[in-house]
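Summary of Year 1 activities. Much of the first year was spent building the evaluation harness for sequence design. The harness presents a backbone, in tokenized form, and records the residue chosen at every position. We chose the following record to illustrate the format because it has been used consistently in internal testing since the harness was completed.
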């Protein structure tokens, strides 16, 4: 109950929690995008090693998936920065 009271006081005092949430959100989005693209790269290299004749298909799918992940991460970071500013 004491912790809830501290959080309520901080929320009433200003937008400090919103700024903290925005900063944490931006960090998580960047970290998750890096991990996701790393897993895509590792899986693509493993698939190319197993089937070298399919390199062009694997590479194009890898680039497309990485671009989609970057787009989502960019959107999340922009939303987090808006939480910091507004």
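For this record, the design step produced the sequence shown next.
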């Amino acid at each position: 109950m004491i912790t809830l009271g501290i959080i309520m006081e901080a929320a009433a005092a200003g937008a400090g929690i919103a700024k903290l949430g925005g900063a944490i959100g931006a960090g998580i989005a960047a970290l998750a995008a890096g991990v996701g693209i790393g897993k895509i790269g590792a899986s693509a290299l493993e698939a190319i090693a197993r089937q070298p004749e399919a390199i062009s298909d694997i590479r194009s799918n890898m680039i497309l998936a990485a671009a989609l992940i970057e787009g989502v991460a960019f959107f999340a970071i922009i939303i987090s920065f808006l939480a910091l500013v507004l």
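Helices lie at 2-13, 16-50, 55-85. Quantitative recovery figures across the full test set are reported in Table 2.
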